[in-house]
Design goal:
This protein has 147 residues and is α/β, with parallel strands linked by helices. It contains six helices and five strands. 43% of the residues lie in helices and 17% in strands. The radius of gyration is 14 Å and the shape is globular.
Length: 147
Amino acid sequence: MEVKKKLNIIIAEDDEGHALLMKRNLTRSGVINPIIHFKDGEEVLNFFYTDDSPYNKNQGESYILLLDIKMPRIDGIEVLEKLKKDPVLRKIPIIMITTTNTPREIELCHSLGCNSYIVKPIDYEKFISIVRRLGYLLEIIEIPKAG
């Protein structure tokens, strides 16, 4: 079952274990769309802003970004802020998936334009359950094309 034609799922997560769990459980929930993994915010921004990026060749496709906050080089908040200020890229839904659950951080992300904020549970089974539910959600939401 393909969630949405030409929907690319981007996971920005520096923890390899969390990224693998997200990929595996999105797939188990029925997602067969391409999943692109970046280890830090700089890689995400390079994907969208460098001339030789696959994004520039595939403009008109839909993207959703699952974005961790605490990453090396460029953190998730800076990525969120830059993408949501861009007149084209601001259409990309951004879901913060992070261990940070402070009200100030949640408020900041929403004020910068994140579409959802999910706190990663420490419990392994709960984390898997949340990611699978996210996969089911991707089946029914409509996502605009970026570009």
